[in-house]
Specification:
Number of helices: 13
Largest sheet: 3 strands, antiparallel
Helix content: 55-70%
Strand content: under 5%
Amino acid sequence: SRSVAYRGAVEFADFEQLEVQPLNRAQRDDLLRYWCDAIYLADEASKYAADLSASIEHSDDRVRQLARTPLMVSIFVLVYYHNQRRLPNQRAEFYYRAARVLVSETHKANAPDYPEWERLSVETRIDHLKRAAYELYTRNAPSATADELADWLKDESGFEGERETAKEFLAAAANRSGLLEERGGQYGFFTHKTFHEFLTGLHLAQSLEDDPQQNWAVVLKDRLTNDQWLEVTRLAAGALAYLNAAKANKFVKL
């Protein structure tokens, strides 16, 4: 169970709670083999498992460190499967593809119903999450309450000033996305800090090019020499290189 799902009426008295520990490389590769045995033909499975393991080992260190939980190992498998049996070489492309997998979870029987989440496209879910990531990052805040985030998001397209609609989205995202998490009334990217950087960079890349108040020039002028923004800026450029080469060139030149 995700920790956020184990609250209130579903909690048991005197019940021992255990947390899954990070996987070592051997355990990770075991899980990769089990996945490949399940989804590929018998004579292909071992070859693809070995190739995926090698691809992870040759990935950027920040990407490699993600493959330490059962959830993220599964995400690696799904990205590999849907990307013609290869992992993206470019870090931002991997994060982009992985984020789409993480927000694409379908409704499960007996799970809480979140109409605000169900009606949104994958792209819109990511748009809202990258705005939340950017707002937290620019405030140097690892987390915020639902009311605080809703205030920051209420002018986002689709919420139209409605704080309650924004709060419903946040609750749904915490339960269904695997990216945003809620702990003790605080929302943040606690488990996936690298995704927080990526989503912040994606918002910078896609949403601020011509913003009259917070355009690329304004943001970069104030933050480009700040070490905290170095990875965000790199991922913004990487996302544009993957999504729009012309804008990537403009961004890098700027």
